[in-house]
Design a protein that fits this description.
By secondary structure, the chain is mainly alpha-helical. It has helices at about 20-40, 45-75, 100-115, 120-150, 150-160.
Length: about 160
């Protein structure tokens, strides 16, 4: 549907048609990791590194995430993938990564792994990132290519997807 009113995950011309809101994907995998910890504990971090790692990862996640949201606001575009992209964000943090919000969410997820001292987070991170790459980023990239054409293609050649 051209109005974006189709079912979740449907590709159209007005939105990326992601499979689910990205924060819910990250939260779902975090909840699964936390639940698996009750079934079989799997500690991963030494006590001496656990809290410093948590603090550094959360600080990086917050700095990158806030910078990305600020750049979207500055560009005057929507940050939610279920809303139309109004402008192509290529400045600020977007000069270094095409997906700073997902990078920030991944760092936040790793911070939770450290805070919870839970190896399940690390084991589930890989299928979670595969799902994010396939069901969110891939769809967003196809949408942005349709929406912005050559300027977006040029941007993709200059800037890496993650780092």
């Amino acid at each position: 549907m051209a109005d974006g009113g189709g079912p979740p995950g449907e590709l159209d011309d007005t939105t990326a048609g992601v499979i689910a809101p990205p924060p819910l994907i990250f939260a779902g995998f975090a909840a699964a990791a936390h639940g698996l910890e009750y079934w079989r504990a799997a500690a991963v971090f030494e006590a001496s590194v656990r809290w410093p790692a948590t603090a550094v990862l959360f600080a990086l996640a917050a700095a990158i995430g806030i910078s990305a949201l600020w750049q979207f606001r500055r560009e005057g575009t929507n940050f939610r993938p279920d809303r139309p992209a109004l402008a192509l964000a290529t400045g600020g943090i977007y000069r270094y990564t095409r997906n700073p919000m997902y990078l920030a969410a991944t760092l936040g997820y790793l911070a939770l792994a450290a805070a919870d001292n839970n190896a399940w987070f690390l084991l589930l991170m890989w299928p979670m990132l595969a799902l994010i790459n396939w069901g969110v980023i891939g769809r967003e990239e196809r949408y942005l290519e349709r929406r912005f054409g050559t300027p977006y293609s040029d941007y993709c050649h200059r800037v890496r997807r993650w780092l």
